Task: inverse folding
């Protein structure tokens, strides 16, 4: 396994004034109320959730507390009351404040490294369009390689196909095992893929690495893989960390990637849709542009992204309100991440014990989501089965949870082919997981199989 001996650089603050606006910095130790938020207050913040549904799928769309929704509505009304004043006096200042908070949360070195975009899919398009230009304009040779994980998010795979493959890049997928037992398995397969990428004199121009894979979900040893990329001469590294902020620890100076993106509407309580794209300040990294060309084209990605035409920017302006919300919890977002991880592991272990199955990875390789094996007798034998079973659980049992199909390998028998990805967020209750457990137990008791569901 790669060494963990990389030095952690102390956070330095070199944020300049931008557009004449004063800097906004997080205190080193954010103020937290002496009395932590109560359980009743948490439930009140999420009272708009459908109470009849066991919502154990925070990973897909996230959640937003009522206090933040209220703040968002105030921003929307501020725009609607006097759009010109909002545009000239409030928008740039507000987005700068959000960017500054994000900069400190992720330990970026400079404010110019942080741009706010709609979501991680938009961020991927920005980075991959730049890579395509590098191929098309001769900075990369046709046939040079790009490496990505087999578990890469579907939309990111499509973006690699749309931009990198069409521009002449040779794409190699890292075949990862599942269930996964250790980081060593991932690191070994990643090294093999880099070797394939460098075969026949090719250069590996890009590595796309997930920080937390979506389906199946597992925390990838991203720091170690970035270090390997540097050792092996990979030109640029893009980390797709859609789930990371608010879910696991992230530190831009420690990880050392060229580009890194994460959604704030999944695990950081923002409304849809907001993500950040980090771009390390380095020669050759300045040619990033938002896919929507506006009046701000050429003024740097952060400024381009802050205005792409008249639209609702309120989700990008509530980050200070979200910070206030998370700081009502003991130890703020750090404490939330820790408790979510501990509880989701306990719930996962409770479920696999009830169903006599197993987890998809060791607890140390999950964050706030974990893969839970489903009973083999359910007869999950295709991706179609997972969708039908998911809908059946939603409509008949009021349980919302995504399901993954793991095809048996040659010669394997009596294995678990279906896994549920359960999440835990602050609004979840123990009863949510009991409801899921009992629903599956009822299906098993009734002799149910996926073949009984209509196509």
Result:
């Amino acid at each position: 396994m790669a060494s963990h001996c990389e030095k952690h650089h102390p956070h330095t603050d070199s944020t300049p004034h931008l557009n004449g606006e004063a800097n906004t910095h997080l205190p080193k130790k954010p103020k937290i109320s002496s009395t932590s938020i109560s359980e009743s207050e948490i439930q009140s913040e999420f009272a708009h959730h459908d109470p009849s549904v066991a919502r154990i799928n925070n990973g897909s769309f996230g959640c937003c507390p009522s206090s933040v929704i209220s703040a968002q509505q105030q921003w929307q009304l501020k725009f609607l009351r006097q759009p010109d004043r909002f545009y000239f006096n409030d928008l740039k200042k507000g987005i700068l404040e959000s960017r500054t908070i994000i900069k400190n949360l992720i330990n970026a070195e400079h404010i110019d490294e942080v741009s706010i975009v709609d979501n991680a899919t938009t961020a991927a398009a920005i980075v991959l369009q730049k890579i395509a230009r590098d191929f098309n304009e001769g900075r990369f040779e046709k046939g040079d390689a790009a490496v990505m994980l087999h578990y890469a998010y579907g939309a990111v795979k499509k973006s690699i196909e749309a931009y990198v493959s069409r521009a002449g890049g040779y794409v190699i997928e890292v075949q990862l095992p599942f269930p996964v037992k250790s980081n060593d398995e991932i690191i070994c397969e990643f090294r093999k893929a880099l070797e394939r990428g460098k075969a026949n004199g090719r250069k590996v121009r890009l590595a796309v690495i997930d920080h937390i894979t979506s389906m199946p979900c597992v925390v990838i040893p991203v720091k170690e893989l970035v270090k390997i990329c540097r050792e092996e001469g990979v030109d640029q590294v893009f980390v797709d960390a859609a789930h990371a902020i608010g879910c696991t620890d992230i530190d831009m100076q420690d990880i050392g990637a060229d580009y890194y993106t994460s959604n704030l509407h999944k695990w950081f309580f923002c409304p849809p849709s907001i993500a950040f794209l980090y771009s390390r300040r380095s020669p050759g990294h300045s040619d990033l542009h938002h896919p929507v060309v506006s009046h701000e084209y050429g003024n740097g990605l952060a400024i381009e992204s802050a205005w792409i035409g008249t639209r609702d920017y309120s989700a990008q302006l509530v980050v200070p309100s979200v910070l206030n919300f998370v700081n009502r919890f003991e130890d703020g977002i750090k404490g939330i991440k820790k408790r979510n991880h501990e509880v989701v592991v306990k719930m996962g272990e409770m479920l696999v014990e009830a169903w006599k199955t197993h987890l998809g990875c060791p607890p140390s390789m999950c964050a706030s989501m974990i893969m839970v094996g489903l009973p083999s007798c359910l007869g999950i034998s295709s991706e179609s089965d997972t969708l039908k079973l998911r809908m059946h659980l939603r409509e008949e049992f009021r349980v919302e949870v995504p399901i993954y199909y793991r095809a048996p390998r040659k010669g394997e028998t009596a294995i678990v082919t279906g896994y549920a990805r359960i999440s835990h967020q602050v609004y979840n209750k123990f009863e949510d997981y009991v409801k899921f457990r009992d629903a599956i137990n009822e299906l098993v008791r009734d002799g149910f199989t996926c073949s009984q569901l209509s196509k």
Remarks:
- The CA atoms of residues 210 and 240 lie 5 Å apart.
